[in-house]
Amino acid sequence: MPNLTQAPVRWEQLAPLPDAVGFAGSVAGLDRGTLLVAGGANFPQGRPWDGATKTWHDRVFVLRPNAKEWEELADRLPRPLGYAVSATTPYGIAVVGGNHADGVYRDAFLLRVDDDRLTTEQLPPLPLPLVNAAGAMIGATLYIAGGQSAADANKVESCFLSIDLSQPADKRVWVELDTWPGAPRMLATAGVQEGAFYLFGGVELADDAAGTIQRRYLKDGYRYQPQQGWRQVADMPRPVAAAPTPAPAVGTSHLLIVGGDDGENAARVAELKDAHPGFSRASLAYHTVTDRWILADKLPFSLATTPTIRDGASVIIPGGETRPGVRTNEVWRGTLTPQRAEFGLLNLSVLGVYPLIMLGIGVWCSRRSKDAEGFFRGGQQIPWWAAGLSIYATMLSSITFMAIPAKAFFSNWWFIFSQISVIVLAPVIIAVYLPFFRQLNLTSAYEYLEHRFNLAVRWFGSASFIAFQIARTGIVLYLPALALSTVSSIDTTTCIAGMTLLTIVVTYFGGMEAVIWTDVAQSIILLAAAALSLAVIAWQLDGSTIDLFRTAANEGKFFPAIPVSPDFAIESVWVLVLGTFFATLISYTSNQEVVQRFMTTSDEKQAARAIWVNAWLSLPSGMLFFAVGTALYLFYQQFPERLDPGLARNDAIYPFFMVHELPPGLAGFVVAGIFAAAQPTSSLNSVATAVVTDFYQRLRPEASPKSRVRVGRASTIITGLAGMAVALTMEQFPVESLWELFLNVLGLTTGILAGLFSLGILTKRAHGTGALLGVAACIAAMWAVSEYGDVHAMMYGCLAVVVSFGAGYLFSLLLPGATKQLEGLTIHTQRSLSSSPAPTSLAALAAHS
User: Does 696 or 5 have the greater pLDDT score?
Assistant: First the structure.
């Protein structure tokens, strides 16, 4: 069995429990920062083979935050108790089942530490008595598996129960669930990782040839996902029973089996007595994605029959049994030690070439960005192929560059619909939306909203876009910097500051033309980096291409069966199709970053070609990035010991491979791809364009072109610094929750804008008042959905478009609005515009009306 190259956990001793003998089978947990250990059993008078009697306890010990020593509370457990399931929950420390010399209990309750008092809240009793069961929490739900219903029973249980502790006290109830497809067991190890419950090993009771009940030590494992049920996973390398449980979850996809009894000396306990070598000191690591086991570490202790307590990035193991009949009062704390690789001088040198190239482009383009036309629209002289590559690079941010391989590594290829939808929608965008942006000669997309509706709608659209882009800039800067810092010696703050400074300088001097050509360079670097990574992985994999493809397909890494149900709360076919369709529609019809590129070519025909370049590049490049993720899966399946269990982020898997597996020099080039994708030049220039066109020029129409460029450059600096401030602020908060919030804001804000553009272009009856009321209704509806609904995050954009469009149209029908000249502003009145010479700007169009 392969060994990890570096121990994932560093172990140290805390203050021992204040009992000379120690305990096994205690209950333990963390309540608002206070560590609690209570109950358990031991042999205070000697060894069991010398006639000592097992004693159960009700004593309670606490270790308060920052305290160095344990203290014993005057309060006691409701009764002496051992070998119960205990779990830390948001509502207290749950204690379920257990036993005493007089029998096995059905009791369940919550413990809380209030100053020097121990308070108890009763939970519903179990459907049957249970001892030596395994349990763990998924969210607010406690799951219990296996155990014995009587201490002297000749059988073990296969029950699987759950209770939702978030329910009011009178609504809490134990639910009997389907059991795992394996033998009944006790002393198993439970674990939770990424919302799934795992059950490993344990002991089965079975008759031997003579009809005597014997223990059979198990090594099989099972995974349970709510709403999906059970499936068997890879067997452990050896049997394990009574290991500290729950198994500590490490990183985003590993579980650790720490010690436990492998049964090797189970039949010789009476013979060995104190000469027993003790329980296993081996720590096993299970990777839940590749379904592989490895030897993680040699432990400084041998422990069994004791709980684990999670305390932030640490796991605590209090007391336990070191060998049969022998307890300990030792308390151990393990702290995660993630792997970090030195980036190296050669990699830094290669990476350092990238900013020089970007600065060179900025200086070269600065000669033609001195007037407003050059700074904001590149003088409308950009070749169609360069504009197409720029659209492609705009839509492929650093988030996507890391997220697509990560998605394929941890999941499958279903999300490639997002690339397919670009091809499907390209004709619609070219035929319906592009003519308005080109014939009206827009600089800002939101100019259209004023002439179709009113100034308030325009300002709402532009302000929403600006706020969204500042937040997006922060995330685009932060996530790759964080991913790189977790796997290498590159500092997060240095990454953020360096990328921000480079982006500001290039955009400040070079304007839109520099943005376009840096996007072209970024596209080439991104695609080359992904292709080289795929080649390096393929070179190291064992097996033919057909065999590797078959392995990935058999393990559901391409297109496994997913629900076709129209349930919008789950990741179904309908959610994927509608979610990706509307996300693409939103990006290509209401996003100033993309629309601005429509305006950089010489005419509408060239802009249409640019859209097709992006569309036809999206699918093959998407397949390339998904292939990298699948190749990473196969690589770490064949070499599980080279994967860091402490990897704290799913989207760090690709950067981790870069800095640990790629040859020096090539690693620097591929990391430059992340920097390329993380350079938000497009966001800075598009925000500057919106600020100048929609606010400064609108309020000061007499402003000279030079003054508009000055304001645009000032806006570039301010936007870059604001994005950097967002990125640096995010270091102080859990990024997962902020990223979830960002997805919700993305669907809400950009979905409303796409709904407004569609409302204006596709209907004649809609007016400004109705559009604004539709916006208000959409915000209220989306808030209600986020608070009270059960909708997949991918559907937020779809719902926002539909609600803002539908509500805006309905309010326009019901309420009076200002009458406006619609010539050239809807698909129903577009023909009249094309039949006469096209005005050179919206101001000219307004003069005609």
Answer: 696
Digit-coded pLDDT (tens) for 307-360:
999 998 899 999 999 999 999 999 999 998 877 777 788 888 888 888 888 888
Q: What is the mean pLDDT of residues 381-401?
A: 87
CA distances from 584 to 341, 478, 748 (A): 38, 24, 14
Amino acid occupying residue 787: E
The answer, yes or no, to whether residue 264 has pLDDT greater than 50, is: yes
Query: What is the Cα 77 distance to its own chain's centre?
Result: 40
| CA–CA separation, 377 and 513 (whole Å) | 7
Residue 382 dihedral angles phi and psi, to the nearest 5°: -80, 130
* pLDDT for the residue numbered 739: 45
Confirm if 179 and 197 have CB atoms less than 8 A apart: no
Q: Which residue carries 């980096």 as its tokens? A: 529
- pLDDT tens-digit series, residues 548-578: 999 999 999 999 888 787 778 788 888 889 9
Residue 182 dihedral angles phi and psi, to the nearest 5°: -150, -170
Q: How far apart (Å, rounded) are the C-alpha atoms in residues 36 and 75?
A: 12
Token pair of 667, please? 């690693």
Task: Give strand ranges (E) for 123-212.
Answer: 134-138, 141-145, 160-164, 175-176, 189-193, 196-207
Q: Quote the DSSP letter at residue 823.
A: T
* Residue 304 CB partners (closer than 8 Å, separation 6+): 24, 241, 242, 243, 244, 259, 260, 261, 279, 320, 321
Amino acid at 649: R
Mean pLDDT (whole number) for 416-442: 91
- Token pair for residue 367? 């000669």
Determine the Cα–Cα distance for residues 671 and 350; give it in Å rounded to an integer. 9
> Residues near 631 by Cβ (< 8 Å), separated by ≥ 6?
533, 534, 537, 538, 541
Residue 719 has pLDDT above 90, yes or no: yes
| Burial per residue of 408-443, b for 16 or more beta-carbon CB atoms within 10 angstroms, e otherwise | bbbbbbbbbbbbbbbeebbeebbebbbbbbbbbbbb
Q: Residue 816 carries which side chain, given as an amino acid letter?
A: P
Collapsing DSSP to helix, strand or coil, 227 comes out as coil
Alpha-carbon dihedral angle through residues 66, 70, 73, 79, given to the nearest 10 degrees? 120
Distance CA 789, CA 642 (A): 42
Nearest to 241 by CA among 224, 255, 223, 220: 220
Q: How many angstroms separate the CA atoms of 154 and 777, rounded?
A: 64
The mean pLDDT value for 5-23 works out to 92
Residue 760 burial (CB count, 10 A): 25
Give residue for tokens 């979610």.
579
In the predicted model, is pLDDT for residue 848 greater than 70?
Answer: no
**Residues paired with residue 196 on neighbouring β-strands, in sequence order:** 193
Contact in structure between 157 and 146 (CB atoms under 8 Å) = yes
Q: What are the tokens at 322? A: 């070191």
Q: How far apart are CA 394 and CA 594, in angstroms?
A: 7
Q: How far apart are CA 24 and CA 470, in angstroms?
A: 55
Question: Residue 480 pairs with which residues in a beta bridge?
Answer: none
pTM of the model: 0.87
Where are the strands (E) in 593-692, listed by range?
A: none
What pLDDT is recorded for position 1?
65
For every residue of 244-257, DSSP letters joined together read SBSBPEETTTEEEE
Q: Answer for the pair 362, 499: CB distance below 8 angstroms, yes or no.
A: no
Q: Please give the average per-residue pLDDT across 404-433, as a whole number.
A: 91
Mean pLDDT of 498-517: 90
Computed over every residue of the chain, the mean pLDDT equals: 89
CB 829 within 8 Å of CB 766 = no
Closest CA to 513 of 386, 697, 356, 353: 386
